[in-house]
UniProtKB/TrEMBL annotation:
UniProt lineage: Eukaryota, Metazoa, Ecdysozoa, Nematoda, Enoplea
Protein name as catalogued: DOMON domain-containing protein
Matching InterPro entries: FRRS1L (IPR042789)
Domain of life per record: Eukaryota
Signal peptide start and end residues: 1-18
Keyword Signal appears in the UniProt entry: yes
Length: 250
């Protein structure tokens, strides 16, 4: 999902964030917001490797996302959520939350084209996005950071995103659709604006892949994947698809 990242919309940093804490992330799961995690039913403050919640806000036509990843408790890291039409990496719409040297994280929208090689070779673990950042500032109304930070080893962000995008981009999608959720994390170099490759193989930080297609606006599950043995595990078939996505870029 995140071998290459092309930033296409919305960079935002806030110095005035809501006072909610990491302990509030699991509050109201299945009561106005819907949650997924790795492992299943984990505690965001202790044993969650990845945590995701989404809450549709019909009145203001937005969806509120909450993203969390265990990044080891240091700055210069990112977490990202991919909205995917399958369980493979590539051609996904991404929401990223990165922690550089600032007190508050930065968030943005991005995409990862399959076979994209014009900016960086596949075997290069970092992709420079500095040249694209000026585009982000022009369309920052599509996504807004309302809470987040680094708490212990956990990086988390609360992000409000417009359901219908106001920017014309192949990788900023209408949220009223069915998507698999993919989550990953990696290194972020704030000085050079580079994102590192996510964990691979049997690493505990291997990306999370949902086993169902979800519409985050209607909060409905539309398709189950029988090969996924549980909601907190990536099936062997899904792992093969994720690895295949890397091979296609070599």
């Amino acid at each position: 999902m995140l071998v290459v990242v092309v930033v296409v919309a919305a960079l935002f940093t806030s110095g005035r964030l809501a006072q909610n804490t990491i302990g509030d992330l699991k509050t109201n799961c299945n009561k106005g917001k819907f949650c997924q995690s790795k492992p299943a039913n984990c505690d965001p403050q202790t044993n969650c490797i990845y945590f995701l919640s989404y809450a549709p806000n019909p009145a203001d036509k937005t969806v509120t996302w909450e993203l969390l990843g265990d990044v080891g408790g240091s700055n210069q890291k990112y977490i990202a959520l991919g909205l995917s039409k399958d369980q493979s990496m590539g051609d996904d719409a991404l929401i990223y939350c990165a922690m550089g040297s600032n007190v508050a994280p930065i968030v943005g929208l991005a995409g990862n084209p399959v076979g994209h090689s014009s900016t960086v070779a596949v075997n290069d673990p970092l992709l420079t996005v500095k040249k694209q950042l000026h585009f982000c500032l022009q369309v920052n109304s599509n996504v807004q950071l309302t809470g987040g930070g680094l708490t212990g080893t956990k990086l988390w962000c609360r992000v409000v995103q417009k359901i219908t995008p106001t920017v014309n981009s192949s990788y900023v999608w209408n949220l009223n659709g069915g998507y698999y959720f993919l989550m990953a994390s990696g290194k972020f170099d704030s000085k050079s604006s580079k994102f590192g490759i996510h964990a691979t193989g049997e690493d505990p930080m291997f990306p999370y892949v949902s086993n169902s297609i979800v519409n985050p606006v209607l909060a409905t599950t539309t398709t189950s994947v029988s090969s996924a043995s549980s909601k907190n595990c990536v099936s062997q078939q899904a792992k093969q698809k994720l690895v295949k996505a890397h091979e296609q870029r070599s």
